[in-house]
Amino acid sequence: MKSLAELQAIRDKARTQLNIRNENDDNIRVLVGMATCGIAAGARPVLTAFVDECAKRGLENVTVTQTGCIGICQYEPVVEVIVPGEEKVTYVKMDAEKAKKVVNDHLVNRNVVTEYTIGKYSE
Amino acid sequence: MRELSLNIMDIAQNSVRAEASEITIRSIEDTGAKTLTLEVEDNGKGMTEEQIASVTDPFFTTRTTRKVGLGVPLFKMAAEQTGGSFSITSTLGKGTLTAATFQTDSVDMTPLGDINATVSLLINSNPDMDIVFIRSVDDKSFTLDTKQMREMLGDVPLNNPDVALWINSFLEENEKELFGGIDQ
Predict the structure, then answer these.
(1) Per-residue model confidence as pLDDT tens digits over B106-165
(2) CATH number of the domain where residue B102 is located
(3) Which residue of B68, B125, B142 to mutate against A (max A Cβ within 10 Å)?
(4) Hey, are the CB atoms on A14 and B125 less than 8 Å from each other?
(5) Handedness of CA B149, B167, A69, B39 (dihedral sign)
(6) How far is residue B103's CA from residue A4's CA, in Å, rounded to a whole number?
(7) ipTM exceeds 0.95
(8) B125 lies in which domain range?
(9) Min Cα separation A51/chain B (Å)
(10) Alpha carbon of A99: minimum distance to chain B alpha carbons (Å)
């Protein structure tokens, strides 16, 4: 059974890694739209996939968070990826599998997955 | 909404927007009476009487990007369609309590779904906020309280990847225990 005491071990491990993280300021932000429209369209599995995949790969420079409705409810689940110094990329009609591909291609290898972006979709 | 846990996620987001520092989520199941009560309570900024009166109206929203607000109305509908009840009480400056009771044997009952994912993501996305999750089935219950977790974690944030994995296992194991060791 999981106990709270195990968190102390996690704390000790995390403290040794903290210094590495502070040194790089190229923090990538992933924003998943989680208003009523996003949730109803299936944003939760997308958010879970981003969190799990980033944890699995140990991506320390990625912050995954939720955001509200940005007004394009028909394209939900919508995900915005913000890489410092680059133009914001908006992915639409996302699902868990697409999320994993975005983590691999965009967050790790820095190649935008053009086929999932809003520009491609509205063509 | 296909799962009530998605409604919970949506309602909890209202608490986040109300600048709450603590959100309590309760899931209380009574298998004898065949009822499920879901509550979201926060210490956010609360609502005015006028806002409380109009919050269940789908055409009321405080947002400016669109004209509809469906979160609360959908949750209310999900409860009332089972023959259950819905209430929202709020005090300006003190906080809000949203509660819904469902009749679980109704054909129109929406399944609770993956409530663990809802709680886990809520903590992960709001690491500076305290989340208390209490789940009970008849006389058995368990609690996850981020305040207790913080005591152990010190300055390590709640959205640390290893912490997230710990939360998932904790919720999964306790859920199993609640249902007598049977996978849900």
Answers:
(1) 999 999 999 999 999 999 989 999 999 999 999 999 999 999 999 999 989 998 888 988
(2) 3.30.565
(3) B125
(4) no
(5) negative
(6) 35
(7) no
(8) 4-178
(9) 8
(10) 16
